[in-house]
Amino acid sequence: MFLPTVVSLLLLSTSATVRATPCVAFDINWNLLAFGLDGKDWYAGTQDTWTGSGGAKDITTSGRPPFDGANTTCYLSEYTNAIYVLNGDSQNPSSVYIYDATAASWTTQAVTTDSQSSRCPLPGQHIFSGHGLLKAANSTPLAWVNDEQAPYPSNYQPVMALAQNHIHFLNVPDVAAGSADIFVIHSRTPTLPLLNGGAFPASYGQATSFFQDSGVQQEFAFIPQDSSAVYVVNVETNTTQALAGPTIKDPKATYFASTDSLIQLASNGVVSFLPYQEGNTNVNSAASWSTVNILTSVAPPSTSTSSPSASGTQSGAGGSATSTSSDSNKSNSALSDETVMDIVGHADV
User: Fold this and answer.
1) Which ranges constitute the DSSP H helices of 172-311?
2) What are phi and psi of 174, to 5 degrees?
3) Are 157 and 346 contacting, i.e. CB atoms less than 8 angstroms apart?
4) Model's pTM, two decimal places?
5) How far is residue 148's CA from residue 349's CA, in Å, rounded to a whole number?
6) Residue 30 — very low, low, confident or very high, per pLDDT cuts 50/70/90?
7) Which residues contact 29 (CB under 8 A, 6 or more apart)?
8) What is the torsion angle, in degrees rounded to the nearest 10, for the CA atoms of residue 280, residue 286, residue 287 and residue 290?
9) Which end of the chain, N or C, is surrounded by fewer C-beta atoms within 10 Å?
């Protein structure tokens, strides 16, 4: 078993605006957690409770981050049942907040910039930090470290997905649709072309990994920026399923997956899910998105005029996407108990 590490692409934001940026995650029992939603943190339980008439449990407590960073993202350390929060504090952007989901408590991990580097082929300078098996912060600061330049042009906006301890780079220039570059994390192998054999588009979007009940992830979901479909890529079989795109078409939405659910957190605060069964293409192709009602009841969505729109429940496969992004304040995330990546536009690693 490899020890967990954290790799982060830190935001290079040109915006001075500070706003609430909630995030969602799961614990190791696949209970849904929503942090910073309507200013509080919530425990929403497992999928079978989400569409009920009750309300999520308020788990807000001391020591939490303010969730006011430009690109707040959350990650599960499966072996420790801890959630790592990156970019959650605009006043301390390099700090990593750790939520112990068993003890329901927060600690803050200090971070410095003076340690050994580790190679990772990402745009800009590289920053690496080894967390070990942390479920709470320790007294010794960890380190972000600058490293070498990536092999991609400076205008490449990273779309990264994790499976089988490999980082998959999507929408890479001169790499065809349905294909990706890969980077083998633990052997530090350079990027290699991977012909996926599937039909996902070459476009900007979001990516997140599906967990397994045991072992490392084998599948990831890719959602193009236009939300036209969800593409689930299995790196073991080199196949892709095209599933229903999110009901809310929101280029600023973020995503998180468990073993049986894909979660969308829209920019207006609505949390939705798509049920998923690994290997069951018939069930998956008929699946549709639903709202997590028990979160909506306690944290109503924003009524801002910039809120995304919904066009009704969809099922089945969506069409291909060709959109690109010029907004550097979006994040893609690939999740792992072994490696945590925070992708934030044209940022450094």
Assistant:
1) 281-286, 293-296
2) 70, 10
3) yes
4) 0.81
5) 10
6) very high
7) 46
8) -170
9) N
Beta bridge partners of 290: 273
Structure tokens at 88: 């959650």
Residues 297 and 303: their CA atoms lie apart, in Å, by 15
Sheet holding 271-275, edge to edge: 254-257, 261-265, 271-275, 290-291
Query: Which amino acid is residue 166, in one-letter code?
Result: H
Query: Both tokens of residue 12?
Result: 């290079």
Q: What are the tens digits of pLDDT across the range 153-212?
A: 888 999 999 998 888 899 999 888 998 888 877 766 556 656 555 689 999 999 999 999
At 101, the amino acid letter reads A
**Contact indicator for 84, 73 with CB cutoff of 8 Å:** no
pLDDT digits (tens, 9 = 90+) for 80-113: 999 999 999 999 988 999 999 999 999 999 988 6
Amino acid residing at 277:
Q
Neighbouring residues of 175: CB distance < 8 A, sequence distance ≥ 6: 169, 181, 193, 202
d(CA 157, CA 123): 8
